[in-house]
Amino acid sequence: MPEAPAPHHTRTIRDANGLAAAGLVPRDAVPGLEAVQARYSIAVTPAMAALIDPADPADPIAAQYIPRTEELVTAPHEVLDPTADEPFTPLPGVVHRYPDRALLKPLLACPVYCRFCFRREVVGPDGGLLTEAALEAALAWFERTPAVREVILTGGDPLILSPRRLGAILARLAAIPHVEILRIHSRVPVADPARVTAALAEALAVEKPLYLCVHANHAREFSPDAATALRRLTQAGVVLLGQSVLLRGVNDSAEALEDLFRAMLRHRVKPYYLHQLDHAPGTARFEVPPEEGRALLRQLRHRVTGLAWPNYVQERPGGAGKVPLGPVWEVG
Ligand code: SF4
């Protein structure tokens, strides 16, 4: 019997009904998931929906984006704002935690909403687009803060801004003499590769070095469309780094991590960070203990090139920054 064609989605799915209509959750799950969607945003792009095998209850792409009712349960150790940006926010949209670098968050919307997101309490489709005045104030802060050598655009996802708007922000930052490098953190190249148009690539082709940290957690996210998007970015002179989160049910095996890091390298993405899960509310199902993470990385030793090796790090509570989690080896 011929296989049924995969459902083709042309618009981002943004609610429980849409997930059911696309066959990604059963109809009778809708009422429970509507309670989740009232608290945490849902978004599954056509690109990601197309990668999901609805017949596989353990599908690693579905695990990242399809909501579950247990998200409404907050474990005792989970905290509302794991990154604690607030005390380091001199003005809206700016986070200055370390002397030589600062974050600029031009918006808080993303192409997809990851169920394990550490900023899940603040990200959402209507969220946090800086007004022209607030953006101007933020850019002026960078201009008058000479200690800052690196500007990190994050959010939300800066690559969902229009190329015109993003290009204007980057050009302004690149023109600041003391700003040496620019960095953007984004899920767009894998989660919504159609957004990486020639116009967007052109907006990213600035004079200063631009590092793009591509957030990806599973090798299957590197679809042919993602490959095209990443190629376009490297051709624009963008340096690609990979960042991932160690996630139960997504990449919690040596094989899955090996495949992920190899997929990154094949697409000119250097694995940079593997994050330990932050304790955001309702994310307990993704937790992999650090001991297990270290053991997984030890298994990768000798199996993969050193180029595939990320820094395995944990964000310390209260905004104290990242610490490496190892693994360490006895040398003698
Ligand atoms: S793209 Fe990043 S900020 Fe947005 S929901 Fe996913 S993890 Fe959170």
UniProtKB/TrEMBL annotation:
Keywords: 4Fe-4S, Iron, Iron-sulfur, Isomerase, Metal-binding, Pyridoxal phosphate, S-adenosyl-L-methionine
All copies of domain Radical SAM core, residue ranges: 96-308
Cofactors demanded by this protein: pyridoxal 5'-phosphate; [4Fe-4S] cluster
Gene3D superfamilies: Aldolase class I (3.20.20.70)
Binding site for [4Fe-4S] cluster: 110, 114, 117
InterPro entries in the record: Aldolase_TIM, Lys_aminomutase-rel, Lys_aminomutase/Glu_NH3_mut, rSAM, rSAM_sf
Molecular functions (GO terms): 4 iron, 4 sulfur cluster binding; isomerase activity; metal ion binding
Sequence similarity: Belongs to the radical SAM superfamily. KamA family.
Listed name of the protein: Lysine-2,3-aminomutase-like protein
Organism: Falsiroseomonas algicola
Lineage: Bacteria, Pseudomonadati, Pseudomonadota, Alphaproteobacteria, Acetobacterales
